[in-house]
Design brief:
Number of domains: 3
Number of strands: 32
Radius of gyration: 26 Å
CATH topology of the largest domain: Rossmann fold
Helix content: 10-25%
Number of helices: 10
Structural class: alpha+beta
Strand content: 25-35%
Length: 620
């Protein structure tokens, strides 16, 4: 089974009621990025961004250096091609392969024909090239190195002379993608942040699934971001309890399916309970799969609807959470279905069910026990994963047709109506903080699905930029801010990054008291986060400390003074930037003249008879 629903219906909804502006002027002011750049002169240089999404149009000027060569270190297209690589799927392109393809006419070796991966990667690390020069089109970390992993493909129809594309998703590929990312991060030796920009409601949502455990393991050593999901605004979670056993009373959970197409309902309850589960169809027919033992499975189908009852250890997600699963799939049709539960053995009695698809704009919902709390996706619920929700900050933008569009997403400052909520099914907060995503600007490719919609291409973007909204925009914005944090201090651990972003998040009248299941710890504040990173690196650096040394002022404009309390003479002194390049500076008595350095973050390395110490400083 898969924990992903094709995003085409949601995208079409968003295209009809889109809003807003980008990571440029207004989003930069909202997150205080506009204060970060002049204070620290950051660009993402020396940081690696790994994007797991729908691929990338690496021909787009946003991802090219001034000399026309690629800014990408690798593309791993897991869906198209077969080059016999060690990962067993797809094809791996390195920078040389990409540059060769860029210089060759014809169909690209790998591409993002949909547009989501290209736009979202651009929010993180696009350089704005190809636009009219407006800073709105530049990504947060425009000089970061990029790896793109194409994991999923959205289905969309042909139109206007452009071909369609079949959808594809295999959750097993996530494990392969993580291994590829791990290998290439180690190979390149750069501090890194990874974003996986897929996922929707379903699964155990407690970190115990096969993919959830892999994400937790990866996120322990590598900063990893995943948006919480676009499943807010509808009663797509049912929480309740069975308090007695026997024929009566029973618990009925009515499922209103009024949107044509596939629907999955995924219900979980404790392994030491035994429920009878039956699906009652709109015409009264009942499907009763029987009550399995743990490590066993039963099912029943009428060809349109199927209900599985899975004992612990045989659920569809590989969960280790000691729970049983009742999974229902309705492939087509509309009507009111009822999932009826009867307690046979009740020790705990609690159940949690999720419905997919069911979000703002779709007429699907639970009519009993319904709530939207807990609509966070399974991936984002994994411990250690950095999970931003999405809020509105400026609800209009001007299209290339000269008209202003927007609205319908909530008032500026409010949570976006479609942003998923916590808690996780094991009771953790789930939402770490909220980022503004309604909407940002990202690179568009003229031949892509995104590029078909003129009203979503943004004025000033020369038909090469358009809107990206929803949590899929908030998560890349967060990822770019983390890249800047790692530029200041490459030694930051994922836990430190998450803690800094949580503790520096701001609360306001919209967030209410924090933390909570909607805004997490508050709204992301890039300047406060970078200030905290700089404060930390101003303290004695444990990575190379062999003796006491103080430097001041920090940040510094001209003369960086050095204090050695024990009076030892300096035998060697060097200044290095964040990518390890040594810079020439003039040493004077008890100080270093850094006036000639460009603004940014640097390391001062000092050696005396007592050993070596490294201190970071910021040149204003």
């Amino acid at each position: 089974m898969k924990n992903y629903r094709p995003l085409l219906p949601l995208l079409l909804l968003l295209l009809l009621c889109t809003c807003v502006r980008a990571q440029g002027t207004r989003a930069a002011a909202e997150t205080r990025l506009d204060e970060v750049y002049p204070a620290y002169n950051l660009s993402g240089e020396g940081v690696l961004v790994v994007m797991i999404d729908r691929g990338i149009d690496y021909h787009h000027p946003a991802f090219l250096k001034p000399d026309g060569t690629t800014r990408l270190a690798y593309v791993f297209d897991m869906i198209n091609g077969d080059d016999g690589n060690p990962y067993g799927v797809g094809q791996v392109l390195d920078a040389a392969d990409i540059n060769a393809d860029i210089s060759t006419a014809g169909v690209p070796v790998s591409n993002d024909n949909h547009g989501h991966g290209t736009a979202c990667t651009g929010i993180i690390a696009g350089n704005g090239a190809g636009s009219n020069g407006n800073s709105d089109f530049s990504g947060v970390a425009p000089e970061a190195t990029i790896i793109s992993i194409k994991l999923v493909q959205d289905g969309f129809p042909p139109a206007g002379g452009s071909p369609g594309e079949a959808g594809f998703f295999n959750p097993d590929y996530i494990l392969i993608a993580l291994q590829f990312a791990r290998d290439k991060i180690a190979e390149l030796g750069l501090p890194s942040v990874t974003l996986m920009n897929i996922g929707s409601i379903g699964g155990p949502t407690d970190g115990t699934s096969t993919v959830g455990r892999a994400l937790t393991d990866f996120a322990a050593d590598h900063a990893f971001v995943c948006g919480v999901g676009d499943d807010g605004g509808a009663n797509n979670v049912a929480r309740g309890s069975i308090n007695s056993v026997g024929a009566s009373p029973v618990v009925d959970i009515r499922i209103s399916k009024m949107t044509e197409g596939n629907m999955d309902v995924d219900l979980w309850y404790a392994a030491n309970d035994r429920f009878e589960a039956r699906l009652i169809l709109p015409g009264g027919e009942q499907l009763v799969p029987g009550v399995p033992n743990n490590a066993a499975r039963t099912s029943e189908t009428d060809g349109i609807a199927t209900i599985w009852h899975n004992g612990a250890d045989v659920d569809f997600y590989g969960s280790t959470g000691d729970r049983r699963e009742v999974f229902t799939r309705i492939s087509s049709g509309t009507g009111i279905y009822t999932l009826r539960l009867r307690g046979i053995t009740v020790n705990n009695g609690d159940f949690i069910a999720t419905m997919n698809p069911a979000h703002v704009g779709l007429d699907n919902e639970f009519l009993d026990f319904g709530t939207n709390d807990g609509s966070i996706n399974d991936y984002s619920a994994s411990p250690g994963v950095i999970s931003p929700s999405d809020y509105v900050f400026a609800p209009t933008f001007m299209s290339v047709d000269g008209n202003t569009y927007g609205g319908g997403q909530g008032a500026p400052g409010e949570i976006w109506t479609g942003s998923s909520k916590g808690p996780t099914q094991d009771g953790r907060l789930g939402i770490d903080f909220a980022s503004p995503g309604e909407v940002l600007f990202g690179p568009y490719s003229p031949g892509s699905f995104y590029g078909r919609f003129q009203t979503n291409r943004v004025a000033g973007g020369n038909d090469l930029y358009g809107i990206q909204n929803a949590v899929s925009a908030a998560a890349p914005l967060t990822t770019g801010i983390i890249a800047l944090m790692l530029e200041v201090d490459p030694s930051l651990t994922p836990a430190e990054i998450l803690s800094i972003l949580q503790t520096t998040a701001r609360s306001d009248n919209f967030t209410g008291n924090t933390p909570n299941n909607t805004f997490g710890h508050g709204k992301i504040d890039a300047k406060a986060a970078l200030d905290e990173v700089n404060r930390i690196v101003g303290i004695d650096d444990p990575r190379a400390q062999a003796f006491l040394l103080d430097i001041y002022p920090n940040p510094v404009r001209n003369l960086l003074k050095i204090s050695l309390p024990d009076g030892q003479p300096i035998r060697e002194l060097g200044v290095y930037d964040v990518v390890g390049r040594k810079h020439t500076v003039s040493a004077v008595s008890g100080a270093v003249n850094v006036q000639s350095l460009a603004s940014g973050s640097y390391f001062l390395r000092v050696r005396t008879a007592g050993g070596v110490v490294v201190k970071r400083f910021v040149k204003l």
